[in-house]
């Protein structure tokens, strides 16, 4: 080795040593990383401490994760067809995806929110909104299945949703894309003053049933996000808006011209009172209301007509605008209900408003302007403080219940922890990359659990093994129990999670259903025992009520079906044990399989096009004799006289 | 004699616990059944530990050709056992009452106990015979025909008392609350005899 070579070796050794030193100083990778691993390690067979429900975004669904492990537990189909279970394919669940536009196989799910009692998560249901065809869904946290979907008429882009008031009295839906209301044929560039941004209020009954109570027909700005007041501000709802410019093209520029847009503060209790006293007018609006019945295992879609529309000017002292800088996005209310945090997404600062100051300003009629007749409060006189130069592109804020707030910054890709009241920045942690929402279990209730925080990122890049151009999104889990946030782990998330909701597992896990009672099955075509299995013909419709049990179908030999028939295969799973689903599929069916839970009945349609003997089988490896769980249907010519015959073991 | 008679009444009355609590318990454990699956044997019939356990045991057993578990009206024992136990309890109480009001020999207490032991043994013998039949009298068309090392058909008989491996299951068969109450009651009747006997001897002395 020559002298230069020795020098180079020496230098590289030096670099190596300094690097090691840095590693030890910066991340304490040794002892610390092992304790991080322990924090997210859930031993085999053990359960996670929290459920995390992540919206699926463009998957239209809701995914369930365990926290802190980050293990995905289930994907709950909500707004999209889901061939895994047959949701949206089976005859029973197709009505769930019915809308005033007809059957829509897909949705864009955004913001899950768990039902509350007295401002605390009660774990009865989880709601989630759909942005594209405005809808709200209610999902049971006993069955983890979608039970109800309500469409919102006269609206477009239901983004400011689905946030629940603190006793689950109401859930709101917004309009992010101002539209003519009622819809009509008109030039796009005449939108100013013509388009509207209705905000819908949906009530929740004790049994969970949703009802569209009224729509507040707001000026045509883009209502983006919302949060209900809680604790002392319970009774109010706050909505951020952008595009107060009312631009209709090249929005990224033209909707970013006003220095300030608005937060709409709505005293919904006043509006409810107004409606109760006969206020508002019934206007046109067609919407689907789809309800799934756990006893018939069937959804019914009802098309409803008309909604009560309210001109916000008509309700004295109920609707106000608060100016907020730089095209706001997130709108969050702290657990005490004292502060409303608005995030101007093009700003470096956060504006925090005081609920008390807002009330005083309203009382003193301290208005600086009006927008289409709605009073605009003074920015300065409602502001509680600003979190200055906190980062770039603030989006959303959650709380830990210990007086701290955590805000995501999309552009600077970080979460910043700051103190309510002093507005002092306490800590900042990188996210990977470009965080959108964040979630602290219970973080938007009166009582956040305050142990973990999940950052839901929009960009994944190099965080995992590459999988071609398309990647899953990425989440990071942080321990927030100490003074500083500590990044614990990374895990991929399915679809595009926007918001998420989390709850302590023990609140709901014991209530989780294990199977459906067969004796309570009220499906009209259920065969509740093998002796009830039948095949009946009605014109060219053939109804087959078939049973499934380990490890056979009954009947498993069927004859008398003809080409051109419409065959309804009503499959009932006779099992009454935990985790024994049976699946069903048949060659030539132009639909998905169905996965039938114990005690449940599901139906798919098969329209045989060719003569022959066609096999069907169980798609779920149910038992040791799963492979034998199969059968045949004989299909005869359209004009044949083959009689209906159905047997099991030739009986 | 008074205290002996009271103990005799209490002891034989404890048999009545069998009308409330199960006599025997059989639990099956397997990897797929982390919380077990099983049944309680009552005087008048079988009951699943969980709502649908009997049906699920039948479901599993059909693979190896075992018959379905008997319903209450399918076995004479489930109508006869309650009569026998009821009669024995009544008899014991009557003997005790007689002892309370007028003198009878404590040998009556012992006699009751001996009769009870004989009936108990007969009951166990019958129970075991049923289990042998249930565990070995298999459907010739059974899906899985298992044999032991010598080529003989495997018996799926649960143990009368204790724990046994049956294929992928571990079967536990033990007395339940009702049986413990009966056992303690029978012990009390012996105590009644012993105390009574001592009294008689001291009177004679």
Give a description of the structure.
The complex is a heterodimer of chains A (651) and B (205). Chain A has 651 residues and is mainly beta. Chain A is built from seven helices and 45 strands. In chain A, strands 6, 7, 8, 9, 10, 11, 12, 13, 17 and 18 form a ten-stranded mixed sheet that branches. Chain A has a six-stranded mixed sheet with strand order 41-40-43-44-38-45, with no helix packed on it. In chain A, strands 35, 36, 37, 39 and 42 form a five-stranded mixed sheet that branches. Residues 10-30 of chain A have low confidence and may be disordered. Chain B is an alpha+beta fold. Chain B has one domain (2-199). Helices cover 51% and strands 16% of the residues of chain B. Chain B has helices spanning 2-13, 53-61, 77-101, 107-136, 177-204, and strands at 24-30, 33-42, 45-48, 162-166, 169-175. Chain B has a five-stranded antiparallel sheet. In chain B, strand 4 (162-166) and strand 5 (169-175) form a beta hairpin. Chain B is elongated. The two termini of chain B are 15 Å apart. Classes of the chains: A mainly beta (651), B alpha+beta (205). The interface between A and B is small, with 7 and 8 residues.
